[in-house]
Write a structure and sequence with these properties.
The complex is a heterodimer. Chain A is α/β, with parallel strands linked by helices. Chain A is built from 9 helices and 5 strands. A 5-stranded parallel β-sheet of chain A has the order 2-1-3-4-5, with helices on both faces. Chain A is elongated, with a radius of gyration of 18 Å. Chain B has 17 helices and 10 strands. Chain B has an 8-stranded parallel β-sheet. In chain B, strands 3-4 form a two-stranded antiparallel ribbon. The radius of gyration of chain B is 20 Å and the shape is globular. The model of chain B has no long low-confidence stretch (mean pLDDT 95). The chains are: A alpha/beta, B alpha/beta. Chains A and B meet through helix 4 and helix 8 of A and strand 4, helix 8 and helix 14 of B.
Chain lengths: 221, 360
């Protein structure tokens, strides 16, 4: 198959994500496999490209949370089909990020949004979910040898859990092993500085830019 | 550092101040509302969880907090989930922190058939909140307006089925969203009626309606109609109502004013000056000192500076201005920071001398 024809498939995948068409994403992903097109390129130039376009729409306030959720549904539906067909060489040594909503907070729309955009940006994401105790976050970050920890909270009442994560890392002599970034409604740059975080992002696209900056714009370790 | 600040003392009770201010008559200072929630527990010296299901303690905490600070509105509030809980949502109540949603009332669409609007006199903690309203009104209702937080129908719907599911349904299954909003509206109307019966006034708060979450068009379709019905109902009782929506709201200010709400409480993501220009001739504005960056973490000087900034931006709002925090204060906001907010407003006094503010 020539590049031009391949590109048609990639564009169709990208459009399916942008247009929130989960079934289309699934159909085209199957065709990509059937046509023996490189799955990794289909992800990068199709699904991820679509999610990046959706992220841009979100930044520009053309898309909101409902649209982004459906875009990410379409992206993940496609990924489920394409991922098993990726060549081994592409599966290794990406920047690994632990993401969690701190204990006491069950709001996870923002965190899920960051996770989706991180996936799309090529980071390897370990999602611990919501309402996660600080000790568990630290334990898993160490065991997984992650590169960064991204923490989110929506509620002012749970902000302290973020500083607890950093204190635990210090106590275990592991603070330097991770970049720790924080975000969420009540969080500010001032708060991030005060608890000794490495960065703060006011929204999901900004979180991706922040991590790109911290890791020198390279999602591969 | 020695602080030569003179003592500023209020000359009027809040009800007098607000009535005079509304008529354009002389007042001692601008109305000021640090939106105190569970910080009230700290004034009374009890755990946060003690407020939620005990009308007397909840009332005592808010009365004590009002007396300590002298702000212009008591809002009986512990968390956003009381109505949803009455409809079957599971709320988790840490001993000394704000309660939060554990599980929504239903897991999928099939659960809707089992949902019923609340009976505020028997469901969840609502009877305790009604008791608190009644007690607060009895004790200080002749001095200060007593309101009770009423969660907006769209936000409540998100607690019934989960925010993520509701967000997907906004695009995939609008009919279900409307069903959940209607049920939530019925609950809200029932609770509003009970709030009036207890002597209070409902105050609308609607976090999920934010333009940080849904588009202006989605707001118009899924939130606005229900808010409007609530505002109309409150007006039928000849009471004014404040509408608070968190986060970004500038794209929906016009619509928020179209609900008929008398006052819009805007968060720190919104710009008071811009709000004044766009809708200040239609509604009173309330806001918007940052609840965490400034009120929780700032110094007395930070708070004074931010209060001056807000007052400078909006003191001449055609329909009036209430200096307030952008959203509910974090529980651990230092008490002296709340004092600092009131003191700054007292220091400015009324009428506001712009040149003095500018010089700061």
């Amino acid at each position: 198959m020539n590049e031009q024809t391949e590109q048609l498939y990639f564009t169709a995948l990208s459009d399916a994500v942008l247009n929130m068409e989960e079934d289309t994403a699934i159909n085209i992903a199957h065709k990509v496999i059937a046509e023996k097109i490189d799955a990794y390129r289909a992800i990068e130039r199709g699904l991820v490209d679509g999610m990046n376009r959706a992220g841009k729409f979100f930044e520009d306030e053309e898309y909101f949370i409902p649209e982004i959720l459906l875009c990410s549904d379409a992206m993940y539906a496609g990924l489920n089909i394409l991922n098993p067909h990726i060549n081994r060489e592409h599966q290794r040594s990406r920047i690994k990020i632990i993401i969690a909503v701190v204990e006491g907070d069950t709001h996870d729309i923002g965190k899920n949004l960051v996770k989706t955009l991180l996936d799309a940006a090529g980071f390897e994401v370990i999602d611990l979910g919501r309402d996660v105790p600080p000790s568990k976050i630290v334990d898993i970050a160490i065991i997984e040898q992650a590169d960064a920890i991204a923490l989110s909270t929506l509620m002012t009442t749970t902000m302290d859990g973020m500083s607890e994560v950093i204190q635990l890392l210090q106590q275990r002599g592991q603070r330097e092993s991770f970049q720790v970034i924080v975000g969420g409604g009540p969080i500010s740059q001032g708060f991030a500085d005060r608890i000794g975080a490495d960065g703060y992002a006011p929204n999901a696209p900004a979180a991706i830019k922040l991590l790109n900056k911290l890791f020198g714009k390279n999602t591969y370790a | 550092m020695h602080d030569p600040k003179p003592l500023y003392i209020d000359q009027l009770f809040p009800v007098q101040r607000l009535a005079a201010y509304a008529k354009g008559a002389p007042v001692d200072r601008l109305p000021c509302v640090p939106i105190v929630g569970n910080t009230a527990a700290r004034i009374l010296g009890v755990k946060v969880s003690a407020l939620r299901n005990n009308g007397k303690i909840l009332a005592d905490a808010h009365i004590a907090s009002y007396r300590r600070f002298g702000y212009d509105n008591i809002r009986v509030f512990t968390d956003l989930y009381t109505i949803a809980e009455g409809m079957g949502a599971k709320v988790r109540v840490p001993e000394d922190e704000t309660a939060f949603l554990g599980e929504p009332a239903i897991q999928d669409v099939s659960g809707i058939a089992n949902l019923k609007p609340v009976d505020p006199y028997s469901d969840g903690v609502l009877p305790h909140h009604l008791e608190a309203i009644e007690r607060v009104v009895q004790e200080v209702g002749d001095e200060v307006p007593v309101t009770a937080a009423l969660t907006g129908p769209f936000t409540n719907a998100s607690f019934l089925i989960g925010a993520v599911t509701l967000s997907r349904f906004v695009l995939k299954d609008p009919a279900t969203v409307h069903k959940l909003c209607k049920l939530s509206l019925e609950s809200a109307l029932a609770y509003a009626e009970a709030i009036f019966a207890a002597g209070g006034t409902p105050s609308l708060t609607d976090a999920m309606s934010s333009s940080t979450v849904i588009s202006p068009k989605q707001f118009e379709e899924f939130s606005f109609p229900y808010l409007k019905i609530l505002v109309d109902y409150i007006h039928s009782k000849s009471k004014p109502v404040t509408l608070h929506i968190c986060g970004k709201t500038s794209p929906i200010w016009d619509k928020m004013a179209d609900t008929g709400a008398d006052c819009l409480s805007i968060d720190n993501d919104a710009d008071l000056l811009e709000a004044k220009k766009k809708i200040g001739h239609r509604v009173r504005l309330m806001g918007n000192v940052h609840p965490s960056a400034i009120m929780l973490q700032g110094s007395r000087q930070d708070i004074r500076r931010e209060v001056f900034k807000c007052v400078l931006a909006a003191h001449d709002n055609p329909c009036g201005f209430v200096l307030a925090s952008g959203c509910s204060l974090p529980t651990e906001t230092p008490l002296q920071n709340i004092d600092a907010m009131l003191d700054a407003v007292r220091e400015i006094g009324y009428p506001v001398a712009v040149e003095d503010l500018d010089a700061q």
